[in-house]
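Here is one chain, start to finish.
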Amino acid sequence: MRFLELTKRNLKEVFRDPLSLGLSIALPIGLFLILQTLGNLEEIFKPTVLAPGIVLFGFVMITFSSGFLLARDRESSLLTRMLTAPLRASDFIAAYALPFIPVGIVQVAGIFGIGSFLGLQISGNAGLVLLILFIMCCGYIGMGMIMGSLISSKHVGFAYMIVLFPTIFSGAWVPVDLMGDGFSRVVHLLPFAHALDATRDVMVEGVGFANIVTDFLWVLCYSVVLVALGVLAFRRRMVE
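Its structure:
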């Protein structure tokens, strides 16, 4: 628990930054309100189907914010001084990752809360939906930690686009079927499409865990690997 003081400091930094919070919370909710009005045109824009895609879009904003915070501190004297403390790379990553978990919770609560007034319904186990989204959120934060450990704060904004486009085109609000079978196979090599497939199957079809176990394992394994890579990337910076 040696990283708690740094975690508290980072938590304050997160909630003191209105621009970051606006991008992470207000922007996804605003986009959700706009796109769901197209629900009479396409099934994917109906609140129940659209909500998971908007949540993942919000998680992309977390990737950017978490990566930027770590990269900015890494470039400053703060982290240089902190590296003299008896903390491991995993402690530092935990201190920079944990403050963004509440942001993800607020995102999900806001989108699903508003969606419930617009006709969003969860036919299956809501807890299973939240579990999948929580694990996927950890994966997005892991990507932010990798970016923050390896690149400068000036380049985080460009790097997060690498995460944004696969998220959108994995079915967030662009139907994968329209892209063809080859494209569908490619995006299903990444976790985003599996997270969307699993959550929508539970929410719309009401299926149980046994029916989505493959998608769930894709999301879980990717998230674990991404967080581990974040730790390894930061450890490399500590050595340097």
